[in-house]
Amino acid sequence: MKLDKSHLFDYFLVLAGNFLVAFAVAGFILPNNILSGGLAGISVALYPVFHIDPELLITVLTFGFFLFGSVVLGKSFAVKTALSTIAYPFFLNIITLFLADRQLTANPILASLYGGVVLGLGVGLVFRTGASTGGMDIPPLIVHKYTNIPLGTLVMITDGLTVLLGIATHSVEAALIGILSVWSSSYMVDKALSFGGQSTKSIFIISEHTKEILDMIHTELDRGATILKGVGGYSGEEKDVILVVIMNKQYPMLNKLVISADPNAFMIVEDAKEVKGNGFTMNLEENRNGLIKK
Hints:
elongated; four-stranded antiparallel sheet; 60% helix; alpha+beta; 2 domains; disordered C terminus; 10 helices; Alpha-Beta Plaits; 294 residues
């Protein structure tokens, strides 16, 4: 089967992501018994009860979750995650051996924060390819498939429940330290997923000077806009509502233009988490007529 460059890059991201996850677990989480999320957190939480070697438990659960995720999420997921299922335990055991006589930090707070950052970055890179590390990130992927709840939020909830499990076998203080890892991991998952995207705002504008504002958006900002039809809740009058998406750096100019056209204009400004299409993910130098702007 021929692989194009995009597939090869996906496999590279899967390997890189799994290496980072394994490094976070072997370098920060397990040596300091951090009640983080994921399989590492479960292995730490259950060790006082069953006394199963953490690396062994992680390996077994990794393969178990892989089989479950393959059934629910399909063939494409299974192919990409199969690489994770092999790579993650391999990297984990190699890095554990390499760091056997070394400890990156003995401070549990630093271990929790840095472990969470590195782990979240690794998981996020793998998520970008539509795959999984084959562990506790599979349940969030399944829930996301049917609910569209942000993956970062689902990972944080799942990891939070894992930390709560550790309260029964460790202590509240250990769980509080573990929450630092959960928060930093969730934050980095979101950052990794949105990396490379444009920082944008979606703006609704209600004004009596719609035509003038539209002209300025087109000529001064070189942005398109959409006219929505609205009805005033109190007056019952029909109103035009301008919807425009711009880059964050363009907002001050837009605000100035709108005020100059209509000081009484009503604006609703929101951060747009993801924007795709002409002017954002397509070539910014191509205008709507296919001409190149210098």
